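Intended use. Records like the one below are meant for learning the mapping from a protein sequence to its folded structure. Do not use them to infer anything beyond what is encoded.
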Amino acid sequence: MTPAPGAGAGTSVPPPGRSRSWRWTLLQAAIACAAILYLVSAMNWHDQVVIPAGARLPGLPPAPAQRLAQVVDADGKSLHLVLDGADILLPRAQLGTAVGEVHLKPGIMPVLRGAKVGDLVTVLLVIACVIPVQALRWWLLLRARGIAPSPLQTLRLHLIGCFWNCLFPGLTGGDAVKAWQVARQSGRTADAIMSVLVDRLLGLLALFVLAALAGMTLSESTSHQLLTQRIWLVLAILVPGILVWVSPTISRVIGVDRLITWSLTHPRVALVAAALLAYRRHHAVMLACFACSVAGHLLLIGGCIIAGRTLGIVTPWGEMLMLLSLVFLIGAVPISLFGLGVMEVAAVALMGSLASPNQVISMLVIYRLALIATALPGGLLMIGGTHLRPVVGPVPGAGRP
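Structure written out for the chain above:
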């Protein structure tokens, strides 16, 4: 066979797999860069005033749609706004807080200028400590199923997941990315999905427990006491289900084992059911992961409370712990990007009697900035690729049920 022109013994042709790898890496880099640019462009850097549809302001006719006016100057009595080229002097007395009223939308730069640098650094460091704690929790869950990435590989994947959490509704997008990466490289799709699902469920359970325990310390607010009672009621419903999940004896006594047996023999749900039930054999791992969840949420809520302190929110720690646990639970619902807007509305509603809406929203702005700052390294890691071989390895005491 005659060799092609220009080809010889010293000419090497890259294998097709390597070519596909480079194309995939370039695609990842393009997606990550676009996502980072989107995050930066989506941020509200300067103060704005939200003018609802039909609202009347001095020198400004009502409009059928909501508008945003830029705040170019402000003093203790009024705000100087610019809207469609028109200058508007808005007295602060006309600013409201409820939906449908003219209200201030704080920007990132004014919030940061009003906060103490030392407190901001503390918030960033506290929230950064959450990353290795969460990665450790997921690493323990993976090892319990015989999927054995190294701790550094798990940390790398978790950072990438944190980055994607900033881009998907309800802080759940990163879970999907993590599960997909592990499934793609291990061939254990059901186990990969269950690892992130159990990881998420343990985190939500820890929030409920923290809110319930913190609520027991409250004695002055009747509304918060009623809220605590509802949280304990939810826990009273969740705990029996958890006991059935982790205890074969209890599930056998109440007859749930028949349903479990059926699920293990039904082709469509057998793999998922087996992967979920396998964790009932790892009680020590589950307790360790739950402890990681509690520690991680204490750090996250602690960072948020420190952000509130630097803005003048002096609500007791126990009360803040309960209320912010509920705010974080609401933010986990996949409604809006990064929980944006959902957490703010919930926080203002729950903390309206403890701090001004501007203080609450500004606190969450600082919290989100710290989260984004700690998640951005995940975007850089994604640009460099996510090859984490070998992902699967023998783990003593782990494996399929």
